[in-house]
Design goal:
By secondary structure, the chain is of the alpha+beta class. It has 8 helices and 32 strands.
């Protein structure tokens, strides 16, 4: 049986952002003895033990968002959630306060008791922050997808949907709000978890640096954080290596660290048999957000908190077993692949299985001899009602726009503007009559990106997702994978069988509704001449 994050969700073993009833809280817990790791000027780690009262300790979770403009970064947050849920349940049992800080999108939690109670608190004056001498942390570049970087957008609109939020958790935002909680609850220690370590934990108002400057004893949980990523497999630079580098920087200049799972295990609050760590894939494409590549892609697999695991994989979508191919060095993929990976020790699974989806772009098609707009249009059906041959277009929707986006703007895909094409809103069908001289159909297709012109697509850029399909005489001739905002355009170049009558270009949503599914067919049309 494959045990994945999805199967845990269907079995109800993780939860959702709906309030979670949680376990009973210990009334008089004993002090916890934490092993704190720091580094001296030589960079060597040292540890010391410190007694900490759990009732005067809070876990601060920073930016566990449901989306990031880097798809690999998004999935690395996803990979932290099972371990984070497991940890937060134990912390609630010990009487610790859980503070959830989804900066940028905190106001999407108005109406939640965990947010409203914070807003109703009588605010304490902001603390006087003492200066901290800390060099700039290592910068990974911000994208873990390699050479073909993701494009920056602000698409996240909430915390990860599988994060279990307790009824007594708190959702603050500002330094003053967090400081008020600390003062009201007489907190002395804050354990920081979340992402992205050197950006959000360092620079956000509720981050570790500010609260340390305010006089709080701050600790970083190194098993529950991830750095703002980077990836250069040729140089051996991976997101895991970069995270370790950033954590070491924190240990030297900012705060001690702990393995929170180890500390909980000491007191019997960590189930060592629980599967909480998915195998990590870099770059990490998924079915609904695949990784596109032109020539080849180098894929790295890792399980940093299961160092003894053998990583076993398949590339055809079949279930990995203890006898599947053994991962030893980064994989080079030259064709489209669905990668499934599991982690095993002595034949037993120790990791959640992970999926990586990689789709290879075809060669760039030639420009058309006949533009699609010059062909005979037989049908244009968009979002709305069709009844008895009458089409009622839905409010705020338009028929397909010629040489403009659906919104009447220039056609644009991944920063490039195109002169010719069609702008549509999914679902949409464009059907054209074929002529004998049409030998090939060529086109580029992708998600229109004008949404990024307003606040970098704040709260919205996560939604556009479309699939393009081409039918000739009612038979599917080609399709794209799921296309997302700022992807390289998908490339169509397909022969038209002699005697074909009609060609249908369809743009569909990707199974998650058609919110913001504005899409463009560009440089589309027909190549003529000899077959």
């Amino acid at each position: 049986m494959v045990i994945t994050l999805a199967s845990l969700l269907s079995a109800g073993m993780t939860g959702s952002t709906m309030p979670y009833a949680g376990p009973p809280v210990a009334q008089h817990p004993a002090p916890l003895i934490f092993s704190l790791q720091t580094r001296g000027e030589d960079g060597a780690p040292t540890t010391r033990d410190e007694a900490i009262d759990p009732r005067k300790t809070a876990v601060v979770v920073v930016d566990p968002w449901n989306f990031h403009w880097c798809k690999t970064a998004t999935m690395r947050v996803d990979a932290l959630i099972p371990r984070l849920n497991h940890s937060l349940v134990a912390c609630r049992e010990l009487g610790k306060t859980d503070i959830l800080c989804p900066s940028d999108v905190v106001d999407n939690y108005v109406g939640w008791p965990q947010r409203e109670i914070v807003l109703a608190m009588e605010k304490r004056p902001e603390p006087l922050l003492q200066p901290i001498q800390c060099p700039a942390p290592p910068d990974g570049g911000g994208c873990a997808c390699g050479h073909d970087r993701c494009v920056v957008n602000y698409g996240w609109d909430g915390m990860h949907p599988d994060l279990r939020i307790g009824p007594d958790d708190l959702i603050p935002d500002t330094l003053q709000e967090v400081w008020t909680i600390c003062q009201d609850r007489q907190l002395t220690h804050l354990i920081y978890v979340g992402v992205h370590t050197q950006v959000c934990l360092l620079g956000k108002p509720m981050g570790l640096r500010n609260l340390k400057s305010a006089g709080m004893q701050c600790i970083l949980a190194r098993d529950l954080t991830d750095a703002h990523p980077g990836y250069d497999p040729q140089q051996g630079f991976t997101p895991d290596a970069h995270t370790a580098e950033v954590v070491a920087h924190f240990e030297r200049y900012l705060a001690p660290t702990i393995m929170l799972s180890d500390e909980l295990a000491k007191i019997g609050k960590w189930d060592q048999t629980a599967l909480v760590d998915p195998v990590r894939i870099t770059p990490w494409g998924t079915t609904h957000r695949p990784h596109l590549f032109a020539d080849e892609v180098t894929v790295t697999l890792s399980a940093p908190w299961q160092p003894d695991a053998e990583l076993r994989y398949t590339t055809d979508g079949s279930e990995p077993t203890a006898h599947s191919s053994l991962y030893e060095t980064p994989l080079k993929l030259h064709e489209s692949a669905r990668l499934l990976v599991g982690g095993f020790v002595n034949g037993e699974r120790v990791c959640l299985d992970s999926e990586g989806v990689f789709d290879k772009l075809a060669a760039m098609p030639p420009k058309p001899d006949i533009l699609l707009s010059e062909a005979k249009l037989l049908r244009d059906v968009g979002h709305g009602h069709s009844y008895g041959g009458v089409i009622r277009t839905a409010p705020h929707m338009r028929p397909a726009q010629i040489d403009l986006s659906h919104e009447g703007l220039p056609l644009r895909l991944r920063g490039e503007t195109y002169e010719h094409g069609f702008g549509v809103q999914a679902p949409n069908q464009l059907m054209f009559a074929l002529r004998p001289e049409y030998r090939r159909f060529v086109a580029l297709a992708g998600v229109d990106e004008h949404i990024l012109e307003t606040a970098n697509g704040s709260n919205q850029a996560m939604h556009p997702s479309v699939v393009f399909k081409v039918f000739i005489d009612g038979r599917e001739a080609a399709r794209s994978p799921v296309m997302r905002i700022s992807y390289q355009p998908w490339r169509f170049d397909l022969p038209i069988p002699p005697g074909s009558r009609v060609i249908s270009l369809t743009t569909t949503d990707a199974g998650n509704g058609n919110k913001e599914d504005l899409a463009n067919w560009v440089d589309c049309g027909f190549v003529t001449g000899s077959p």
